[in-house]
Write a structure and sequence with these properties.
Blueprint (H helix, E strand, L loop, with lengths): L11 H4 L12 H8 L4 E4 L1 H9 L6 E4 L2 H11 L4 H7 E3 L2 H7 L8 E5 L4 H9 L7 E5 L4 H14 L3 E5 L7 H6 L8 E4 L10 E10 L10 E4 L8 H6 L2 E4 L11 H14 L8
Parallel strand pairs: 2-3, 5-6, 5-9, 6-7, 8-9, 8-10
Antiparallel strand pairs: 1-4, 2-4
Helix pairs in contact: 8-11
The site of S-adenosylmethionine has 17 residues, from β8 and α11.
Length: 275
């Protein structure tokens, strides 16, 4: 198949406001270049699959091999196969590599519209809450942030809030999150803007988590990889909570700490993980 459209294209002007454009772009390179600066890059088949599954608006998706991408959909994502079939435009390998910073083994890439910050803030602030919000206090490592967003999506957490300078929508974080930014509310806020709810801050000096039940409306806060919890976050914390750890070990990795805390919440009666 060539890069020309086989079906009626969306005019580029319509893409910003459109729902998922289940059509193939007439000029994928032009459309890509026009929208890449204001969109979220979905890097690879799995990121596109997750984003579509969780309702992302995807104006454009490209692949070097439509047949291979649709075979993956048949195997791994029959629920979104029809959508992907309508969405994927085939491009040459050289075009694909010119569009993405780093080619993905599946040779699939797409652009998605970032969810509205206002909607995410409403989701984060809404009470009563059926699942915690994860707070990463001044995280530094983009891969950790992506892994945490993936965990939050998997456990059905209400959202992930970061404080500090790291952008939780940075392309490397989105890559680490495997497209699951669309399955939970992800925003950056200052400590004094955090959503309501009791703050359970994770710290090796805290009370042993094994004797606690973490409430569904909790904010589960974790410190930075380098320096732990900030003074501002400590001041906002209602409880300090420790994960079991031998005395000679100083700390766990940030993302694994989030995994243990979310697992503890779910294993001690937290709301069920949604389908
Ligand atoms: C890599 S650790 C931070 C290490 C840092 N050097 C420090 O001084 O705390 C990142 C975060 O993971 C969480 N964490 C790691 N190990 C933990 C433990 N044993 N108990 C509770 N939280 C832990 C804390 O929230 C911590 O701030």
């Amino acid at each position: 198949m060539t890069e020309s459209a086989s079906q009626a294209p969306p005019g580029p002007a319509s893409l910003g406001a459109a729902g998922p454009a289940h059509r193939q772009a007439v000029d994928p390179v032009g459309v890509w270049r026009r929208f890449v600066g204001s969109s979220v890059l979905l890097d690879g088949f799995h990121a596109l699959k997750h984003a579509v599954r969780f309702g992302a608006e995807v104006p454009l998706a490209v692949t070097v091999d439509r047949a291979a991408a649709l075979a993956l959909a048949d195997e791994l994502a029959p629920d979104v196969r029809e959508t992907l079939d309508a969405l994927l435009t085939q491009v040459t390998e050289s075009t694909y590599t010119s569009l993405v910073p780093r080619p993905h083994p599946t040779a699939v890439a797409a652009l998605a519209v970032r969810p509205s910050r206002e909607v995410n803030l409403r989701t984060l602030a809404r009470t009563p809450r059926s699942a915690p919000v994860v707070v990463l206090d001044q995280p530094r490592n983009l891969g950790n942030a992506g892994a945490v967003i993936r965990l939050a999506a998997g456990f059905g957490a209400t959202g992930v809030v970061t404080t500090g300078t790291l952008d939780p929508w940075h392309p490397t974080v989105v890559r680490g999150g495997a497209g699951l930014h669309f399955a939970t509310a992800v925003e950056r806020l200052a400590v004094d803007e955090l959503p309501p709810g009791p703050v359970f801050a994770l710290d090796p000096e805290g009370e042993d988590i094994r004797g606690l039940k973490l409430p569904d409306d909790a904010l589960l806060a974790f410190g930075s990889e380098r320096s732990g919890l900030s003074a501002d976050l400590r001041a906002r914390a209602d409880h300090l909570v420790a994960l079991p750890m031998r005395p000679q070990v100083s700390s766990y990795n940030l993302a694994t700490s989030v995994a243990m805390a979310l697992y503890h919440w779910s294993a001690t009666g937290g709301a069920p993980i949604k389908d």
